[in-house]
Design a protein that fits this description.
Pfam families: OEP (PF02321). It is found in: Cell outer membrane. InterPro entries: OMP_efflux, T1SS_OMP_TolC, TolC-like. Residues 125-222 form a coiled coil. Keywords: Cell outer membrane, Coiled coil, Membrane, Signal, Transmembrane, Transmembrane beta strand, Transport. With 468 residues, the protein is of the alpha+beta class. Helix 4 runs antiparallel to helix 9. The chain has a single domain, classed as Outer membrane efflux proteins (OEP) (Up-down Bundle). Helix content is 60%, strand content 14%. It is built from eleven helices and eight strands.
C-alpha cells in the first residue's frame, strides 16, 4: 500500500507496521483531484496556452501576403498665389498684378495586389504552420512537466508529513527510554553515562523533528505553488504501472519517436527549411498589380473637379541591394543547421531520461521490499534488545541504537514508497505520454485546434476569440 493523510498528518497505510489507529478519511483529497487542479490552475501551463494562441496568429499574418492592400487618402487645404507681370514685358507698357485663392480638396483610393514574389508568401505560410505545430508540442511538453511536478509535490507532502509523524513517534519512544534510564539510574542499576546517552538521543530527535516539520512546510508551499490548492486530508498516492511501457527499451523508443520535446525540434527544422526559402525570395523578381482612383476639387481656379483612375502592372527585379539579402540567406541556412542538431540533442536527452527514470523505478521497487523486510527485522530486534536490557545483558546505548535503526528503516520505507510513485510518473513523462488524456483525468481537455480554426482565415477584427 502507499501513503495516506488525515487532518494534515501523513502516515503509511495499514500494510506498513508503524501505522496505529489512523484511517483514510471518507472525503480525502486525491492525487487525481490534485492533478486536475494543476491542469486547470497552474500559471506556467496557462501561460504556455496563451503563447500557443499567440503563435496561431503567425498563420493569418503570413496569409495576409496573398491578400490585397487597400489605402484611402483624403486632403483639404487652402492655396494662395500672387502673380506680378513685369511692365516691360507687357505690350500696353503697364504691369499687372493678379491674386488667386483656391481651397483644394480631394479623395483617393489605392489598391496593391502581389501576384508573384518568389513564393515568399507560400513559404512564410508553411513556416508559420510549422511554428504552430511546434508550439503545440511545447504546450504538450509543458503539460507533462506540470503534471509530473504536481505528482511530485503531492507525494512530497505525503512523504514529509509521514516523516514528521515518524519523528514524533521516535521522539516519544526515546523519551520513554530516557525515563526508564533515569529510573534505573536512581536505583543504581546503570551509570550516569547511560542517562546522558539517552538525553543526547532525545535532544537529537527533537532537532530532527524540527527539521522534518520545516521540510513539510516547504513541501506544502510547493504544493500550493504547483497545484493551486492547500494540501488537506491527502489520500494514498499510487503508481501508474498500467500506463507504462512494458520495458526500458519500449520507453526509450516511445520517447525518441513521440516525446513532445523531440517533435517540437522536428517542427522547428521544418520552419527553418521554409525560412531559408523566404530569405532566398529576396533575390526573385516581384510582380504587383496596382490600382488607383482619385477625385480632386478646386485644384485651380479653372478646374472645379478632376477625376482620374489607373491600373498598372509593376515588375521589380532586384539587381543589387547592398548584400544584406545574401547575409540573410546564409544566416537562415546556419540556423537550419543548428535546428537539425537540436533534434539530435533532444533525442539523446530523452533517451537518457528514459533510462534514468526506468532505473529509478526499478530501484524504488527493490527498496520497498528491502525496507519492508528491514522494518520487520528491526521491530523484532528492538523488542529483544529491550528485554535483554531489562535483565542487564544490554546497555542503554544498545537500546537507543536499536530504536534508531527501526526509525531509519521506517523512514526508508516511506521514502521508497514516495520514489516508487514519482518514478512511475517520470517514466511515463520520459516516454512522451504523460497527459491529462492518458491519465483519464476528469477535466475538459484544452484543444489548441479550436483557437487556430477561429483565427486562421480571419480577414479583419481586433477582438480575440476570448473576447479581449
Amino acid at each position: 500500500m502507499w501513503l495516506s493523510a488525515t487532518g494534515g498528518k501523513v502516515v503509511a497505510l495499514a500494510a506498513v507496521a508503524f501505522v496505529v489507529g489512523i484511517s483514510v478519511p471518507a472525503q480525502a483529497q486525491t492525487l487525481e483531484q490534485s492533478l486536475v487542479a494543476a491542469y486547470r490552475n497552474n500559471p506556467t501551463l496557462n501561460s504556455q496556452r496563451a503563447a500557443t494562441r499567440a503563435t496561431d496568429e503567425y498563420v493569418p499574418i503570413a496569409l495576409s501576403g496573398y491578400r490585397p492592400q487597400i489605402f484611402g487618402t483624403a486632403y483639404a487645404g487652402a492655396q494662395w498665389a500672387e502673380t506680378r507681370v513685369d511692365p516691360g514685358s507687357v505690350t500696353a507698357g503697364t504691369g499687372s498684378l493678379s491674386v488667386a485663392k483656391t481651397y483644394p480638396t480631394g479623395v483617393g483610393i489605392t489598391i496593391s495586389q502581389t501576384i508573384y514574389n518568389g513564393l515568399k508568401t507560400a513559404n512564410s505560410v508553411r513556416s508559420a504552420e510549422s511554428q504552430v505545430r511546434g508550439q503545440r508540442e511545447l504546450l504538450r511538453n509543458t503539460e507533462q512537466l506540470v503534471l509530473l511536478d504536481a505528482a511530485t509535490a503531492y507525494m512530497n507532502v505525503l512523504q514529509n508529513a509521514a516523516l514528521v509523524e515518524l519523528q514524533k513517534q521516535n521522539l516519544e519512544a526515546l523519551k520513554e527510554e530516557l525515563r526508564a534510564a533515569r529510573d534505573r539510574f536512581s536505583v543504581g542499576e546503570i551509570t550516569r553515562t547511560d542517562v546522558a546517552q539517552a538525553e543526547a538521543s532525545v535532544a537529537n530527535a527533537q532537532s530532527e523533528l524540527a527539521l522534518a516539520e520545516s521540510n513539510l512546510n516547504t513541501a506544502n508551499a510547493v504544493f500550493y505553488q504547483v497545484i493551486g490548492l492547500r494540501p488537506t486530508k491527502l489520500s494514498p498516492g499510487r503508481p501508474i504501472d498500467r500506463l507504462l511501457p512494458k520495458s526500458e527499451k519500449a520507453a526509450v523508443e516511445s520517447g525518441i519517436t513521440s516525446h513532445p520535446a523531440v517533435k517540437s525540434a522536428e517542427y522547428a527544422v521544418d520552419a527553418g527549411v521554409s525560412n531559408v526559402k523566404v530569405a532566398e525570395a529576396a533575390l526573385s523578381p516581384t510582380l504587383t498589380l496596382n490600382g488607383a482612383a482619385s477625385s480632386d476639387y478646386n485644384s485651380t481656379l479653372n478646374i472645379e473637379r478632376q477625376t482620374s483612375a489607373s491600373a498598372t502592372l509593376n515588375l521589380t527585379v532586384p539587381i543589387y541591394q547592398g548584400g544584406g539579402e545574401y547575409a540573410s540567406i546564409r544566416q537562415a541556412k546556419e540556423t537550419l543547421g543548428q535546428l537539425r542538431i537540436e533534434v539530435d540533442v533532444n533525442r539523446e536527452q530523452v533517451r537518457a531520461n528514459a533510462v534514468q527514470y526506468w532505473g529509478s523505478l526499478e530501484a524504488a521497487k527493490a527498496a520497498i521490499e528491502s525496507a519492508q523486510a528491514s522494518v520487520a527485522a528491526n521491530e523484532i530486534a528492538l523488542r529483544g534488545v529491550r528485554e535483554e536490557w531489562r535483565v542487564g545483558q544490554r546497555t542503554t546505548l544498545d537500546v537507543l541504537n536499536a530504536q534508531t535503526a527501526l526509525f531509519n528503516a521506517r523512514a526508508s520505507l516511506v521514502i521508497a514508497q514516495r520514489d516508487r510513485v514519482v518514478a512511475s510518473y517520470a517514466v511515463l513523462s520520459a516516454s512522451g505520454r504523460l497527459s491529462a488524456t492518458t491519465l483519464g483525468l476528469k477535466v475538459p481537455i484544452y484543444n489548441p485546434q479550436v483557437h487556430y480554426d477561429q483565427v486562421r482565415d480571419a480577414w479583419i477584427g481586433v477582438r480575440t476569440p476570448g473576447g479581449q
